[in-house]
Amino acid sequence: MWSVRHIVASRSIYIERSDEMVQSKKQKYMFLAFCLVPTFVLFSIFTLYPLVSGLYYSFFDWSGASDNKEFIGLGNYVRLFNDAIIPDTIIHDYFLVVTKVIGIMILALFFAVALTQLKIKEAPLYRIVFFFPNIMSVVVIGILWMFIYNPSLGLVNSGLGFLGLEQYARPWLGDENWALPSLVLPSVWAGIGLFMLVLMGAISNISKSFYEAAEIDGATKWQQFWRVTVPLIWPQIKICILYIVITTLNGSFVIVQVMTGGGPNNSTHVMGSYLYQQAFVQFNFGYGAAIGVMILVLSLITVVILQFILRRDKIEY
Amino acid sequence: MKQTVGQILGKAGIRIPLILWSLAVLYPIFWMFLGSFKSNAEIYRNPWGFPETMNFQNYIDAWANYGIGTSVINSLIVTLVGTALTLVLAIPTSYAIERVNFRGSHLLFMLYVSAMMIPMVLGWIPLFFLLMDLNLLDNIFGLAIVYAVSQLPFTIFILTTFISTIPRSLEEAAAIDGMSPYGVLWKIITPLSMSGIITVTIMNAIQFWNEYFMALIFLQNSKNYTLALAIDFISNEAQYTNAWGTLFAGLVIATVPVIVLYAIFQRRITKGMAEGAIKG
User: What topology does it adopt in the membrane (chain B) (predicted)?
Assistant: First the structure.
């Protein structure tokens, strides 16, 4: 009995005292709804719902007309495993991932060290120039590089001719063996600036005293690079690698679509460009969705594995 | 400071790759400008040299006969509507997540941020049919909405960082003076986070101006093409039409606005992108 009375009493006090608070609570929720609901509704409609229903579509055989959507269970996934092009697209994607990571990281790291540690007067100029391709449209980059690789007019072949190496000249993007490797250079060209900047930021945060100490201990520049610079900027190196991997797996198809459209003879198709072809050119929307699920799963697995491999305790001296 | 001969030589050695890479970056861009002034015959005769005369015919052709004029207007509309909508949607949410205490605010933030890592290509198939049902397929305003929502995670992510640096005491003082939370958001928070708002807006604008793949999927009629699509179209046709000069003019028209933005906002753009990469 006592407890009930106690609760009732305290309740009534609470209610009397907080009439104003209830009012302001209501106002607070109104304000929160104003801030959050419209954004979240649009985000749900245009991002969350498409992702979830993409998963749903992957269980249907569907050519796009609304009436003939047929549930086929895992049929699209069975087809995925039996499609001879799929393994190629996966290999092509990871080929681009690996070559881009190596190419971009070596050059970006080299340039970052050169521009921060060797007092070069015109360093800001290089920084501005190297970054610029990062904000150019992939379409512009792709078309420019199609010209550079152009068999008759292109810079590459005329450069080889100039050096007397005509026998190496070839239609780069039209050659089944060379088309995919030819896509690496534009990607590296377009990507270096950003990662160079991130690494420059990290290097300039390293205290000079580490290098002075290393100098006294007789470490060469090369040793200083491996023993001081690399360990101390390892977190940023790791972020750069992860970022390159994610953006390549999620976006390599754009440059493929612009430069080769997946050809010649499927030799440059990556998962995303194959999805585009299956879904929006051949109208196999269900199968396209299954490829989309595969891309999602593979990129998530890759990121998790990479995080595990790159795990290296942050070094603090 | 004294430098030994070895150091001076070392510096010269280090400059060679730096200069070579600068050339590799600048020459294709430079050459794109040169090509836009050449006639087709000249491009074949002398693809990599200077034009003989400054000839603006390519620009006239591109603008009037190859649909670049229409596509520039479309791209401008998509970019302006897209960036404005992104801000309208992102500023209140960023403020609420960062400054208003409510259950689930962290979860909501994580939901938005994790969307930056998800490959959206899976979502584009259902999105295609959703836009069709909403009558927004092949519609530049539909595309602008899709763009705006696609940049929400990044924008919220950057804006919350900026808002977190605004002293709470300013909001509290305004609230004591009787200002409503809407007033605080509009008159205190928005002006004080202007630097962040400008940074994300420039980056979103460049993103929307350059975007290609979603436009390729969601636009169909050439009247609705954005600049990226129009150029891609000319490029695919050029094998048959040989309109290379026109194509170069199109590339220049697409790139000049980006160069101008970069010239004005170089620091903001580089800093914003580097931060986006590090924290994302």
Answer: Multi-pass membrane protein
- Both structure tokens of B123: 């979502």
B22 touches chain A (CB under 8 A): yes
A235 by Cβ neighbours in 10 Å (0-12 / 13-18 / 19+) ranks as middle
Rounded CA separation A189/A156 (Å): 15
- The CA–CA distances, whole Å, from A287 to A34, A62, A63, A250 equal 40, 8, 9, 18
pLDDT digit string (tens) for B82-99? 999 999 999 999 999 998
Quote the pLDDT of residue B3.
57
Q: List chain A residues with pLDDT less than 50.
A: 1-5, 7-18
- Tell whether the model's pLDDT for residue B126 goes beyond 60: yes
* Nearest CB to A130; choose among B21, B121, B182: B21
To the nearest whole Å, the CA of A66 is away from the closest chain B CA by: 9
Q: What is the pLDDT of residue A70?
A: 81
Does the interface predicted TM-score (ipTM) exceed 0.85? yes
- A228 to A209, A219, B174, B258, B259: CA distances (angstroms): 11, 10, 50, 38, 37
pTM for this predicted structure: 0.89
Secondary structure class of B3 (helix, strand, coil): coil
Residues of chain A in contact with residue B115, where contact means CB-CB under 8 angstroms, are: 43, 47
* Cα gap B62→B64, rounded to integer Å: 6
- For chain A, the structural domain boundaries read 76-309
Q: For residue B59, what are the CA distances in angstroms to A153, A211, B228?
A: 22, 55, 16
